Amino acid sequence: VDSEAAGEARHLLCQMLERRLAGNVVKAHKAASAGTNIPPVEWDDAKLKAIPVRKGFPHRLHSKATPEASQRFRAEHAIQIEGLEEVPGPVCTFEEVDFPKEVQSVLTERYDAPSPIQSQAWPLLLHGHDVIGLSETGSGKTLAFLLPGIVHLRAQPRTKTKEGPVVLVL
């Protein structure tokens, strides 16, 4: 290979990469700034009550845990729940939760069972409760909140473009 030709090829490749990266940066900037033109909304009780929001989906749960087994599970995994008189039992298998079929197949292919935070967060969230979950990195928090979020999203009326978030996971 001619060293001059190789140098020219390298130069052309670098130029192509720079143009592609610059284009991606512009696209990313446009996507990131898309939400900056959303006008602020003044929320009052009347507006909030006018929006039909379905939050509870207990029919998607088939927990087999007895109250005693639920207490044991929470004690074993240091799960503390505050502010509720009736706490739904944890789910210990994926079959105890009715997620969309596509999601179920991925879960059963990749994992043996729900993690402790998933086992308790899913029933709470699918019953319509707000949840703050504290757990170690890698414990399954993202799926603990995201999967009920998908169920929630699919049950809501379709939103208009730039109408705002329907699910918030921090």
Automatic annotation (TrEMBL):
Highest taxon in the source lineage: Eukaryota
Question: Residues in domain DEAD/DEAH-box helicase?
Answer: 115-170
Q: Cite a single GO MF annotation.
A: ATP binding
Gene3D superfamilies associated with the record = P-loop containing nucleotide triphosphate hydrolases
Q: Output the PANTHER family linked to this UniProt entry.
A: ATP-DEPENDENT RNA HELICASE DBP3
Q: What protein is this chain from?
A: DEAD/DEAH-box helicase domain-containing protein
